[in-house]
Amino acid sequence: MRTVTETLKKIPLSSWLIGFLVLLIYEALDAALNDILQILFRSQSGTPNWVWLLAGLSVLVNIVFPLSVTFWLLSSMKQTRSWHGDFQQLLIETLRVWGKILLYSLFFVFPGVWKWLSTLFVPYVVLFSKRYQEGEADAIRESAQIFKRVWLSTIFVILIFSVALPIYLGISFDQYRQIWIHPFAALGIGLIDYISLVFSLFLLFNFFKKASREVHHELIF
Prior knowledge:
The chain is mainly alpha-helical. It has one domain (2-214). The protein is 78% helix and 0% strand. It has nine helices and no strands. The chain has helices at residues 2-8, 13-41, 51-75, 83-105, 109-118, 122-128, 130-133, 139-173, 183-214. It is globular, with a radius of gyration of 19 Å. It starts with a helix and ends in a 7-residue tail after the last helix. 23% of the residues are buried.
């Protein structure tokens, strides 16, 4: 926990605030799209053909916004932030990850879940691995190698911050996420989501650093 706290202190306050603002925009937009989709699918007059455009927009929002917040927070620890280079590469690798997960999930659920867990370190490889930056490493394979060294700690963090806490918040407070109806409650829930995201991101970051040092891989900050 001490190493996580020390890592968090390196990020400027402005980066924290921008990250939180983007997360709030994402949650408000996602809640609005979900409400509209539910109304359209339950319509007695039938579901319009263009509803799939909204569904596609919802998927796009759920890819781009979380990825942007992740990139923004992690890249805050680097001397330079490159939207054209690093973010573009991270988006490409994320699409590759989704393809791999879907392929593994076609047969059984467990292989798909395990593949997802093994790719959790892809953003860290893309942003901080010197071998990847020099074209000497594949992000998905590198992530899998890191995961093998810290798999138990990684699963523990994911169970708390990506499974248990979201399920609890979803069951107890999902109806309060509409910021235009419950502004203060939505802000509070958004703050909890943000803190949860931050701790999971930087706990995994410290696992990544530890495992990389064990195999003598140089990192770039």
